[in-house]
Design a protein that fits this description.
The chain is mainly α and 430 residues long. Helix content is 54%, strand content 1%. Among the domains are: 146 residues, no CATH class; 66 residues, no CATH class. Strands 1-2 form a two-stranded antiparallel sheet. The protein is built from 17 helices and two strands. Helix 3 runs antiparallel to helix 4, helix 3 packs parallel to helix 12 and helix 11 crosses helix 13. The longest helix is centred in the C-terminal third of the chain and has 29 residues.
């Protein structure tokens, strides 16, 4: 009789057995471990909820603008192509793109700011740290047979590491000197894990050199910057918050240069930012007009596609020049983004910051959103957790102290969509 076939864990080229290890489920499979990871994220509740979570416009307000989910899908696609060109496993980079915003709360970064204020005494709130918490604790997929607790999606070490943008704990703002340089505004308030998630964080970072991120994460991070710098501008044009004539005005030009310098590139000469803006406006595919017609829509779409290609190709070519080799993976290389291209992306991000995030009327809207989040957290705590959903309510009862119970409530509120947060507030707080 023929011998029984033995299924082994397949290890993609350029990766090690440690890269494909999982916290709990290391059962053999004929499928690539990164394909399995990608499927787990794609089928997760955390990814689905992003369909009703803010990107630029509050989700559900209009049909054209992106939601956090459509942004996520675009980041994953850009990252997959760029990573493949460099020799990374395409499914691994795809996982990082799909997972990178799983921890974002209702109302985008505005909701994140309010939850961080509320949770200050218990370690704060940060969307990236919450992403790790979703992937390794909150998402219902795999239970630890020893502890009986959820281990989230139980992704491989490499997938978790590729999704970790800020591999350090919460700390006072410090000057950051990494491959993103001054793009963090010289100061980083961001962090990658909470104190009670330290064990899984240190596990996924085994073998990592200090606070350096892996190449797959760097590809995802650049894809994220490229996607929202281009697509948020596209959405703003369609919404009427931006007109193309703004970018030729001397006053507006100075404003863009100032915001890009202060907010994104403090170590870069403002004149270099002005030169980057000039390069963008001189591109033969930069849209000449926009009135919402099919012709102008097509022209705008061509511009977004060409800009994405411009920014990604520049990084691919510079990285290949610096790191020859067929399979650039993990810590064998770092993404190289030419300064001129990084400056162009910062100029686009500044446009969105000025005309969208800080648009007229936004201040009042943001205040209402923060009040809603605060009311909801206070009410859920005051009502002793009895309104929490069944998947998380036992954690409230099991918490050792008020701080632990507050963290559970913050986990619940951060898991809501914009729409469900408004509904919960109307039902519980009005």
């Amino acid at each position: 009789m023929p011998a029984a076939s033995v299924t082994r864990v397949s290890i993609p080229v350029g990766y090690s057995p440690g890269d494909v290890e999982r916290w709990v489920d290391n059962s053999p499979s004929a499928r690539s471990p990164f394909i399995r990871d990608r499927a787990r994220v794609l089928h997760s509740a955390g990814l689905r909820r992003l369909a009703a979570t803010t990107q630029v416009l509050t989700a559900g307000r209009a049909d054209f603008p992106r939601t956090r989910l459509t942004h996520t899908l675009e980041v994953a696609q850009i990252a997959r192509e760029m990573g493949s060109a460099l020799g990374c496993d395409p499914d691994l980079v795809d996982v990082a793109g799909l997972a990178h915003d799983l921890g974002h709360p209702p109302f985008g970064h505005n909701g994140e700011t309010e939850l961080n204020r509320i949770a200050d005494a218990i370690g704060g709130f940060e969307g990236n740290a919450q992403t790790l918490r979703v992937m390794t604790r909150l998402e219902a997929k795999v239970m630890d047979p020893v502890t009986g607790r959820s281990v989230g999606l139980d992704l491989t070490r490499a997938s978790l590491d590729a999704s970790c943008k800020y591999p350090w704990p919460r700390r006072d703002p410090v000057t950051v000197d990494d491959r993103r340089g001054s793009d963090l505004g010289g100061q980083s308030h961001k962090f990658g894990y909470y104190a009670d998630d330290a064990e899984i964080f240190h596990w996924l970072r085994e073998g990592a050199p200090g606070e350096r991120t892996c190449l797959e994460e760097q590809v995802m991070d650049w894809a994220d910057d490229v996607a929202y710098s281009v697509h948020d501008l596209e959405d703003a044009l369609h919404a009427g918050w931006i007109t193309l004539g703004m970018f030729t005005s001397a006053t507006e030009r100075e404003n863009i240069m100032d915001v890009a310098h202060r907010g994104y590139l403090p170590l870069v000469d403002p004149a270099s930012i002005g030169a980057a803006l000039d390069r963008l406006l001189a591109l033969d595919y930069w849209p000449a007009s926009y009135d919402g017609s099919q012709r102008d829509l097509a022209s705008l779409k061509l511009a977004t596609s060409r800009l994405i290609g411009r920014f990604c190709q520049a990084a691919e070519e510079a990285t290949r020049e610096a790191f020859p080799g067929d399979h650039l993976t993990r810590y064998a290389a770092s993404l190289v983004v030419p300064e001129g291209v990084r400056t162009e992306v910062a100029a686009l991000k500044a446009m969105t910051a000025i005309y969208v995030l800080n648009r007229e009327g936004a201040t009042q809207e943001y205040a209402r959103q923060r009040d809603l989040i605060a009311d909801l957290v206070d009410t859920l705590v005051e009502r002793g957790g009895r309104d929490l959903e069944p998947w998380i309510a036992p954690e409230f009862d099991a918490a050792a102290d008020d701080g632990g119970r507050l963290r559970v409530v913050v986990d619940q509120v951060s898991s809501l969509t914009d729409v469900s947060a408004v509904e919960w507030h109307s039902r519980l707080c009005d």
